[in-house]
Structure formats: C-alpha cells, structure tokens
Amino acid sequence: MPFSSDSDAAFDWDRIRKETFVRQTEFHATVDSTNSVALEGCETADLETPRLVLAGEQTAGRGRGANAWWSAPGALTFSLVIHPAHLGLTPQQWPMSSLTTGLAVCLALEETLSRDDVRLKWPNDVLVRGRKICGVLVEVGPRPTETLVIGIGVNINNSVRNAPDELRSTATAMIDETGIAVNRFEFLCRILRALELQITRLSSHDTSLAADWQSRCALIGRTVEVDTGSRRTTGVCQGIDEDGALAVLTESGPERLFGGVVTMINDE
Asked: What percent of the chain stands above pLDDT 70?
C-alpha cells in the first residue's frame, strides 16, 4: 500500500520493488535511527535483501564517530540492508561502499542541480556549493549474517532555515537550492537506481569509478586535518585514489588514509 508521511510525497511499495533492486520494505512514521532499526532486523530469519528501512521522520540519526545527523520533517532518511556477497562485493570492497553510495547521491542530485555544485567530501558526505546536503553511514551487520547497512540522510524539503544555529552556515537542502519542493518518493527511486548501478560498477572493478570519485572530490588542493582515531594527519589533499583512500601530501611525504574524520579544511 502507498503511504504518505506528509503532503509532499506518497511512497509506493510496489513501485519501489518494481523499479529498483529493493526486495523488502519497512516504514516507520518516526524512528530514532533507521540504521539502528535496520541493524536489529539483520538477524531476521526470512531477511531478503536489499531491504529498505524508511522513516517519515528520524529523531536521532547517527554520523561517523560521535557525530549526530540533524533531520527534520521533509528530509529523506533511510537505510538499505544488503548482503554484499549477493551483489558481488568482496570484503575488501566493503570500505569503498560509502564513497560509492555518495557518488550515487551525487548523480541523483545532478539531475536537478549543476554538476559543478555537487561534490563528494571524503569519506561519507555530499556537498552542494560547499554545504552539506547528505550524509552516509555504512555499518557492518551482526555476525554471521554478513550484511552491510547503508544509511543515507538527504536534506530535501527540510530547509536549513529551521536548523540549529551552528548548521545554518554549513548545511543546505534541495528546497534551499531550488526554491521548489521535491517529491521525496521520486528522489528516493532516483537514488536507489543510481546506487544499484554504482554497486555493480564497484563489484565489476570498473576502473572509471575512481575517476568519478576524483572528479567530484571537494578536498583536492586544500589543506586538511584527518583524525584516524589513533592519530591526526595534516597535509594537502591530492584526491581519492582507486582504493577509496584519501591521498594526502604531508611534510614527511605522501600518505594514504583509508578511514577517519576530516576535522579541518583550509584553502591556504
């Protein structure tokens, strides 16, 4: 049955399963975190994937580390449970799923916005004109299910005019960029179709995938500080390489970072 969490869209389960690679769907009008719900469902005996967990509103979305994800009615917040092996992904490719998801969101956004405005901020954010519009959080499901949970939050019709003060200068939403409300169901389908294609590219070792990451990298040429958990690395970003690592030229030479949080960006 279709459902609507607000007046801007009705999400049609049958159409989602018909037009995308999603096989199971689950909806919550309000939830703390779609990733938390999705992780709990990974141990379901009849789990069929990809499984979509969609929220009308998310109240306590999680980001990387201790970060939280601001959301409000009108945002698009969902998680996708996948069995990587069923989609041809090896464990070595799992870390690249975050960038691959970010690229899919970029491609969906580029159908409405200028490509020059849409950028990937390694390892898991999408920016429009330098402002965050989307966050991605990939988590490994409980063993032995061998699942990945891909969480995506996109600011759609939740204008940042209503965001906390500290976010108004660093975030944006589609409605702020275009001045027009977006049909969230149509945009969800657009992301899911793009994500299926990009996962297929990753699983088939498409050599042009890294070029798409690199061409959209928001950090190239900028001085960055990256907290990897065990240490902080500072240097000039050289881009994203074919393994999904952030290439940074430090005072002691080049380094490749496979994970971490960018804590500082400087254009000087």
From this structure: 92
